[in-house]
Amino acid sequence: MHQKLTAVVWDFDGTLVDTRRKNMNVARALVKHITGSDPDEFQALQDLAGYEPALHRHRHWRDFYRQELRMGETDIDRTEEHWLEFQIADETPAEIYDGIREVLETFAHLPQGIVSLNIRANITRFLAQLEIDRHFGKVLGAEDVETGYQKPHPHALVRCIEQLTCAAPGLVVYVGDHETDVECAHRANDHFQAAGTDIRVVSVGALYAPHLTDDHWDVEPDGKATAPREILSELTRIFAALP
What we know:
Elements: E1 5-10, E2 17-18, H1 20-35, H2 48-56, H3 61-68, H4 73-89, E3 95-96, H5 100-106, E4 112-115, H6 120-129, E5 136-140, H7 155-165, E6 170-176, H8 179-195, E7 199-206, E8 223-225, H9 230-241
Parallel strand pairs: 1-4, 1-6, 4-5, 6-7, 7-8
Antiparallel strand pairs: 2-3
Helix pairs in contact: 1-4
């Protein structure tokens, strides 16, 4: 491998922190508050075995609310408006995945960032609570990205990489649990290639949540980790194969 690793960028939900049950409970509360419907009417909100596959069937959270929870656009807009409020009010614990702390420490000599569809204020709150905020030099959330430029559009990932590395040549790792994360990495590579910038993004699929599968993904990551510690071994394999 001739290029050096210059930065590591992470998705947040389902990648660094297990927020599945918390996010499901927030969705249940929002559906009841905004539409008056019983959340148990929806298979996607009955338990995690239904919630997680349903969430990952869709490229954007709005599609999940539209198709799985049968919300109209006005109600979806209200959901977005109240989401952080309900997140803060919900007391369901969100735990860091076992092994993530060790992986973060392994990369502690490198700049690390987060690019997520979650709200930045919510992400930074969790990072502080879990005492891992010191690892992240840049956090880009939903409010940092203009409408139409959220993942899988590469805008936020490209911006994060350029700010973390000052656009220095090298390899950057992006770890995420959703197909949109992988597509975002691929599209970032297209951007850098078109711009003549010698940056390559290596994507790792974080497939360690119990009900998560990539069987329906149309795009393939460079590597797949079924546990956080496998991120390191996958990167060793990927880097060894690079020219």
